[in-house]
Design goal:
By secondary structure, this protein is α+β, with helices and mostly antiparallel strands. The protein is built from eleven helices and 13 strands.
């Protein structure tokens, strides 16, 4: 309902015959965290929570962030933090000599920012998709995905391609089993009878996230280099996973062993989760979620007290089947699989417990699985 209201507000302004209204979803990741930049497997899904954009021809470039009450004219040298995602796409167009009609753009969201639900990728992909339509670039989705991945690196986060693939290719009621080596994917039916995927947003974002996220990415590249030298192979952790996962890795330092162990185990969890979802093995799904979180907490070490509290609460709740932290870590959200007839009760109980512990309540959302980025209307 919130999304529809936002669309109507945008339509009231962007109502010309050549106006465009775009919906760009966020995403959850069922399992497969920090595996995309390690050429592994992951299982994300686009969700109904989204960024909405209205775009119309204008006599000057202007972008307005309704939720932040901020604006940016692209000639301004001082710009809001969110403008980096728009700027990166415009830089690409300039570099490739692509035509860009002058436009006025308004954007708003039902998708929370800083919650580990890929709001930055949603902006990047949505804006790129909008310009592709408005300017008749006719760039196919596969190439748009690659452009978005490259553009988003301008923000300074050294991530992979999971978010962009899921946002461009999401399918209602399906997750995408992504092979991050070649970017191929399979659609996996994700609806589980009598159960609801639920997001709990900690509403915290520890300042470590950008530096420590990049630190993990760089350490994994270092591990791949050491493995390549030791085994005489290409510098690629996918090869290590497929051919050398049973090795002792005595040539690695303790932290490096933990990181590699997590990546290997998480790839196995993605495969096991896919089988469990297809067979509707609810118990196994829950166990894999909890196991994934333990790996992120103890081996990859990207959790935080707020996330651990939510997962520990879920482990003791009769309403919860499983849970794990989601996203880069150090804050953001956790993903929970809840008995459908207990969602209201669970929401109240986990919110009260979290408030008692940390002094404020989390935000809780249903994770309804949606299609990828789409044109809502063309006047």
């Amino acid at each position: 309902m919130i999304g529809q209201e936002l669309i109507q507000k945008l339509e009231s302004i962007h109502n010309q015959t050549d106006s465009w209204i775009i919906k760009s979803p966020g995403r959850i990741n069922i399992i497969g965290e920090h595996t995309d930049y390690n050429y592994g497997f992951c299982l994300p899904a686009a969700i109904e929570l989204a960024v909405f954009m209205g775009l119309s021809p204008s006599n000057k470039f202007q972008i307005n962030a309704w939720d932040r009450k901020e604006s940016w004219n692209i000639v301004d040298t001082i710009r809001p933090d969110w403008a980096v995602y728009f700027k990166a796409i415009l830089n690409y167009a300039l570099k490739e000599n692509l035509p860009v009609k002058t436009f006025s753009l308004d954007f708003t969201a039902s998708l929370p920012s800083g919650a580990g639900l890929s709001s930055s990728s949603s902006i990047t992909c949505g804006f790129l998709y909008a310009l592709n339509l408005m300017n008749s670039w006719n760039i196919p989705l596969e190439q748009l995905t690659s452009i978005a991945v490259t553009a988003e690196k301008e923000s300074g986060v050294e991530g992979g391609m999971m978010d962009q693939i899921s946002i461009f290719n999401g399918s209602k009621d399906h997750a995408l089993l992504i092979d991050c080596l070649d970017w191929s994917f399979k659609k996996i039916p994700i609806l589980l009878a009598n159960y609801q995927w639920t997001i709990v947003d900690t509403k915290v974002k520890h300042k470590l996230i950008d530096s420590d996220y990049n630190n993990r990415s760089r350490l994994c590249k270092k591990i791949a280099n050491k493995c390549a030298n030791y085994f005489g192979i290409e510098e690629n952790l996918r090869i290590v996973y497929e051919q050398y996962s049973k090795e002792e890795f005595g040539f690695l330092e303790a932290q490096e062993k933990n990181l590699l162990s997590y990546v290997i185990e998480e790839n196995d969890r993605v495969k096991a989760m896919t089988k469990s979802i297809l067979s509707q093995d609810i118990s196994s799904i829950g166990s894999l979620l909890f196991s994934g979180h333990e790996g992120l907490r103890n081996k990859y070490q990207v959790s935080c007290p707020e996330l651990d509290f939510l997962i520990d609460f879920a482990a003791k709740s009769s309403a919860a089947i499983g849970a794990r932290m989601m996203g880069g870590g150090f804050g953001g959200s956790s993903l929970h699989l809840i008995k459908e007839n207990c969602t209201e009760e669970f929401t109240q109980e986990i919110s009260q417990a979290y408030r008692s512990k940390f002094g404020f309540a989390p935000d809780v959302y249903k994770a309804d699985i949606s299609n990828g980025v789409e044109l809502i209307n063309k006047k």
